[in-house]
């Protein structure tokens, strides 16, 4: 007769569990992902999920933060590391084409797709992701406006419109990737967008 072992429950790998949750939210979206779905994917029980992460909404917030650092950081790097807005935009779009179609993980961008057309009960989550997307557009606008002010871009270049264009193309690339577009397809879109971008004056 087997003897039941006593003691604390077996510990789990919190980082691995969080990554599993992130990928599930990324694939299905916030509202379509249930707590039962999460515990199955993470390999833990419901009490462990609540003890380690809080409720579903708190877990999602942590997943978004982890996504930004692990999968979505190419946006920040392009803006900070490239010397001009044009170079940053070109790098950002081409890296998005690669990241959004990377084999072995969900397609597109979690921040763009995980909380759209939500019910009123999830309005706060939807607004949080909208704020992240709008913050990115504002960062694009600041970098573009800096180049206009410094004479790197023509004086009549509209930083706000160009930033909105960049945001719209990123959102479109994400959806196209989810619809099955290849990396080459998205890179061709990126190249076309950059041909319409104002040329640098110096």
TrEMBL record:
Residues 11-71 form the HTH tetR-type domain. It comes from the Bacteria. Keywords: DNA-binding, Transcription, Transcription regulation. The keyword Protein transport does not apply. Residues 34-53 bind DNA. The keyword Cell division does not apply. InterPro entries: DNA-bd_HTH_TetR-type_CS, Homeodomain-like_sf, HTH_TetR, Tet_transcr_reg_TetR-rel_C_sf, TetR_C. Pfam families: TetR_C_13, TetR_N. PANTHER family: HTH-TYPE TRANSCRIPTIONAL REGULATOR YJDC, TRANSCRIPTIONAL REGULATORY PROTEIN. This is TetR/AcrR family transcriptional regulator. It comes from Actinomadura yumaensis. The lineage of its organism: Bacteria, Bacillati, Actinomycetota, Actinomycetes, Streptosporangiales.
């Amino acid at each position: 007769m087997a003897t039941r072992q006593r003691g604390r429950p077996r510990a789990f790998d919190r980082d691995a569990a969080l990554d599993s949750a992130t990928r599930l939210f990324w694939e299905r979206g916030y509202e379509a992902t249930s707590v039962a779905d999460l515990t199955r994917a993470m390999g833990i029980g419901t009490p462990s999920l609540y003890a380690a992460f809080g409720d579903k909404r708190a877990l999602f917030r942590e997943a978004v933060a982890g996504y930004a650092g692990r999968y979505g950081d190419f946006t920040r790097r392009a803006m900070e590391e490239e010397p001009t807005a044009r170079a940053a935009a070109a790098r950002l779009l081409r890296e998005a084409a690669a990241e959004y179609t990377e084999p072995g993980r969900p397609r597109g961008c979690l921040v763009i797709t995980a909380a759209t057309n939500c019910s009123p009960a999830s309005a706060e989550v939807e607004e949080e992701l909208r704020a992240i997307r709008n913050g990115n557009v504002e960062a694009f606008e600041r970098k573009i406006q800096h180049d206009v002010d410094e004479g790197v871009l023509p004086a009549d270049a509209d930083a706000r419109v160009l930033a909105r264009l960049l945001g719209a193309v990123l959102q479109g690339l994400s959806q196209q990737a989810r619809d099955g577009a290849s990396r080459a397809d998205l890179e061709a879109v990126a190249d076309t967008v950059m041909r319409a971008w104002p040329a640098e004056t110096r």
